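Worked example 3. Consider a protein that binds protoporphyrin IX containing FE.
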Amino acid sequence: VAVANTVRALPARFDPRRVAAEPDPYPVYQRMRAEGPLLRAGPAQWVVTRHAEASMALTDSRLGGALPEPYHRLSTGDGPAGEFSQRILLYQDQPVHGRLRRLLGTPFGNAGVQQLQPKISTLADDLLHAGQERGALDLAADLAVPLPLTVMCHVLGVPDPVRDAALPWLLALGRTLVTHASPAEQRAADDATTWLRDCMSGLLSLRRRQPADDLLTQVSGVGGLVAEFGDEEIVDNLLFLLFAGFETTSSLIANGAAALLANPGELARMRAEPSLLATAVEEFLRYDAPIQSRVRMVRSTIVIGERTLRPGRIVLVLLGSANRDERVFTDPDRLDVARSPNPHVSFGGGRHFCLGATLARLEAALVFGRLIARFDRIEPAAPAVRSVTSTLRTYSSVPALLRSAVGSHRDGGAS
Ligand code: HEM
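Given these inputs, the predicted complex is written out as structure tokens:
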């Protein structure tokens, strides 16, 4: 039983910097929740384990997204990647944060996302077509990766050849957002930042000469939209958008696919009741959250779990643990595609709530809707292969055997 104001330490062998990198962090999270809602992770560092406290920590403005400079240096170093991470909106407080969200947000509102539906459907069909031809598909590498990357590049206005060249660099840059990157990861992220910045600046200049219907044109200053930011801020935030919208959504699709293959009964339920698509997507997000933790810094004194935290304290909010909190979710370790309500925190919360949540939900609904409508048999072809960093949880491979449903070509799925 947790005693008020007793400092509870993390379980032995549990390194909060490598949270999601545990092959199966969920039993560890369970023990941590039992210890208490707030555990000490180190000097001036705390970990939030339970749903009520996590929701509060994500939304309360006494905690902010801006982190002290040494904290950035620890994860991204003090080269280009370090500079990049200090500029992106994820780590800004007001008023800069609000201005950046307004600058970048238009395509990701409801109206903008609905316009993308035909493009996403065609893309999903084209990728699944390869599975139909071969009777097998890697649902991670050949579906979950290319689909969100192509969608994000389409929204921004990044041409296909640039997209393909950018992929390895984007993956390297994504590694910088881990809580503590290794020196090798930092060097790779520096090189990636340099390459990607050149590339994005070139595209920004191009759009100034040749405007198009895309986000690059909107933020390029054509039409006088952007007086308040310099090109450096704009370029770095566009790069952030590109991988924020890519790896996370890839992970949602890969994790969802792996969860369904491991739970054929739930797959059968979705097939029998296509209206479960929306709750199923929420359940994939809850069951195995792509982003396992978010960091906040205390801006003014706050009480969490009966402990008073002073300004400057770092708080790691374990989204993956909050999503399995037995105080909120019945039978939390079970995948239940009909679960409702499902107040998971996989998109974070408060002012920093994920800008792309509507888009991510639509992409996942379209992909799973079409996958299930198109194939009447979907089974594992080999064990799925996990890929984890300290914050992103996904699979590098989810091999599946597929058998086409008779007569289904471009006709199935969510709309
Ligand atoms: C399943 C897919 C996704 C997941 C799980 C996810 C998760 C998250 C999380 C946990 C945060 C931090 C929230 C917080 O600190 O409270 C976030 C922020 C963000 N996400 Fe997503 N995301 C996904 C897809 C996308 C997409 C498609 C986009 C494309 C626009 C996107 C853009 C962003 C941006 C720009 C932020 C920073 C928001 C801010 O600081 O104000 N994300 N996302």
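Take a moment to read the result before moving on. The pocket of protoporphyrin IX containing FE is lined by residues 58, 65, 89-90, 101, 108, 241, 244-245, 248-249, 252, 290-291, 294, 346-350, 352-356, 359-360 (CB under 6 Å). The radius of gyration is 21 Å.
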